[in-house]
Amino acid sequence: MEKLCKKLFDLARPYLSVRSNQEHTEASFSFAKELQKQLGGSQEIIFPAIILHDVGWSAVPEELHLQAFGPKNVDLKINRIHEVKGAKIAEKLLQEVPLGNQEREEICRIIKNHDSGKNPLTLEEKIVKDADKLFRFSPRGFSIDAERFGINPQEYWHILNDFKELWFFNELGKTFAVRGLEKVQDQMLK
Questions:
Q1: Which of 24, 99, 126, 127 gives a 20 to 30 Å CA spacing to 35?
Q2: 3-state helix, strand, coil in the chain (%, to 5)
Q3: What whole-number distance in Å separates Cα of residue 109 and Cα of residue 91?
Q4: Mean of the pLDDT values across residues 88-108?
Q5: Does the pLDDT at position 62 exceed 70?
Q6: CATH number assigned to the domain comprising residue 50
Q7: Which phi and psi angles does 99 have, rounded to 5°?
Q8: Helices (DSSP H) in 17-138: which residue ranges?
């Protein structure tokens, strides 16, 4: 699994050069590994899906990104484009690694719904969704997002604190979010 993940990271790198996606993806992958370790689920689905989940942002003009995500997003259609295009890019990249057709299809289905899908069908999908969101709750992700959204850190902390109740599909994901917000708050108090 380690070789497969390294290969996918290498293949995805050109598509992750926008929106701090390389850093986001690496952190989300770490969260996914920890969630999978404690909750179970298929590594063959979870790990490729989290590595490739945001490759579709490379197909969206950069000037439109901030309209598509975050607390001030105004056009969820743009966000949907990154999911659909991302699934197509992922389908192509997954041909380069040894996975079965069923795994490829499931990975692409998760990518196609990782932001917009409100009712995840599998544990693997729940883990990918939670790992993706957890980056925002890490001190580094919090800092990047507060700056890019132009939101006062205190205000952004409260926004995320409210969203943690809505965003997470696993109690463990919510627990990680609470811990992340505690670390962020400690840093803000220094």
A1: 99
A2: 75, 0, 25
A3: 10
A4: 97
A5: yes
A6: 1.10.3210.10
A7: -135, 155
A8: 21-39, 43-52, 76-94, 101-113, 123-137
∠ at Cα 49 (48, 54), nearest 5°?
115
pLDDT band at 74 (very low <50, low <70, confident <90, very high): low
> Is-above-0.85 flag for pTM?
yes
Quote the tokens at residue 125: 């999908």
For the chain, how many residues are written? 190
* Distance between CA atoms of residues 151 and 158, nearest Å: 11
Each residue of 127-168: pLDDT tens digit?
Answer: 999 999 999 999 999 999 999 889 999 999 999 999 898 899
Whose structure tokens read 């069908």? 121
The owner of tokens 């966000």 is: 79
Quote the crossing angle between the two packed helices 43-52 and 101-113, to the nearest 10°. Answer: 50
Query: How far, in Å, are 16, 58, 87, 141, 164 from residue 91 at the CA level?
Result: 16, 15, 6, 28, 31
Write out the two tokens for 146. 């507060």
Structural contact between residues 184 and 157, judged by C-beta atoms closer than 8 angstroms: yes
Q: What percent of the chain has pLDDT over 70?
A: 98
**Residue 26 binned pLDDT confidence (cut-offs 50, 70, 90):** very high
Counted domains in the chain: 1
